[in-house]
Specification:
eight-stranded antiparallel β-barrel; 1 helix
Length: 194
């Protein structure tokens, strides 16, 4: 495990512990499986609309909601992030720890979030196996959305998030100057509270 991953995991565990310790007794834990797609920046779809070449992005978020604030740990994975080809494969994994402003308005819960974590990209040229690149970067994300309750302990969620790496993108061990991995993501999810 690299020191970058170790630091991201340590920061996530500390953040979870601090939020859980600070939550009142009325806090609700949640788990939220999601599906979506990436757009803009380095993603192969440049806009949310008018893109026929969307690749599936899936993951899960879990955490706690208080009456106003919450915390979420999210893990998401996107296959064929840089495009689909017979000679190449790529994927991006994000592991983000987020603080949420999420006031409970009974049926509705609008939210905004910001957080930090790991953005791991993998690119492999499969034709001649000339290039196999893993890039681990510390990054941040910001976004917002809406949670709508549909039954006791069940809700639907939609959001848009923007991800950006702090570190320069590396290709075969060489930094690409001025190029940091960034992209947006639109997602829908089910939220189970308990």
């Amino acid at each position: 495990m690299t020191s970058m991953i170790r630091r991201a995991v340590t920061a996530s565990v500390l953040a979870i512990g601090l939020v859980l310790a600070a939550q009142p007794v009325s806090a609700q834990a949640f788990i939220s499986p999601l599906v979506g797609f990436n757009f803009g920046g380095a993603a192969r779809c440049l806009r949310v609309t008018d893109c026929d070449d969307k690749s599936l992005n899936y993951g899960v978020g879990f955490g706690v909601f208080g009456s106003i604030f919450g915390f979420e740990q999210e893990i998401a994975y996107a296959q064929d992030f840089f495009g689909e080809s017979e000679d190449a494969s790529s994927n991006v994994l994000t592991v983000m720890s987020n603080v949420m402003l999420a006031p409970n308005l009974k049926v509705l819960r609008p939210y905004a979030l910001v957080g930090v974590g790991l953005i791991k990209s993998h690119v492999e040229l499969t034709g001649a196996s000339l290039l196999d690149v893993d890039n681990n970067a510390f990054g941040w994300n910001v976004g917002g959305g809406l949670i709508v309750s549909i039954a006791p302990h069940v809700a639907l969620r939609g959001d848009i998030r923007y991800f950006h790496a702090f570190d320069e993108f590396e290709l075969a061990g060489v930094e690409v100057p001025g190029d940091k991995l960034d992209f947006g993501r639109a997602a829908a999810a089910v939220v189970f509270t308990f």
